[in-house]
Amino acid sequence: MTQNKKISVYLVEDYQLIRKSIKLMVNKSTDIEIIKDFETAEDFIPVFESNPSDVVIMDLGLPGMNGLCATKIIKEKHPSTKIIILTSHEQTDEVIAALACGANAYCLKDIEANEMQNIIRNVHKGVMWIHPKVSEAARLTAPKPISTDFDNLYNNIAVNTNLTEREFEVLKKIVDGKTNTQIANDMCISTHTAKAHVGNILSKLAVSDRVEAAVKAVRAKIVD
To answer: Could you tell me the pTM of the whole model?
Structure first.
């Protein structure tokens, strides 16, 4: 009879005592195995890329590259891998940021051994899990719909950009797909100034890159 394959797990946590404790509680299970643990994301990522696991347990406050950055890298390259954030951070912004970066679960470090095992199993199946202490964050940060009509919940929500006239010009050129150098040449400004305008636009639109800025600008009808 073929034995079922165990759920493979990597653990990234900088405190040795916590790593040992987590490994002890998880490896008691017969269907889950922490195959390797790491102190830093920099040590972890090359190993993961050569041999991806089913699940990753990731601390947020790592030395060097933090857990948010590592989570984003993993999910971009291996979206099927499930990531469980295990941290002492309870701030709403950090919870939302972790989920936005692709985390599948957000756990606090006071979790019980059997509960962690169940979270790994459920996350591996595709279930999202958020610790009850921080679950309120999702409700507090969710945008309010402008209608209770399912077809028009968020249609035509205005985006308060507070863009300057110059930034608005730059945004239109971003939508047109122009680079910083091209923007600088078109507007007779330095590349450094163009880059600064782009940075301000990304911040005001609350997006992480030019593509997101262009998409948001078009969808919110900031530009035609």
So the answer is: 0.66
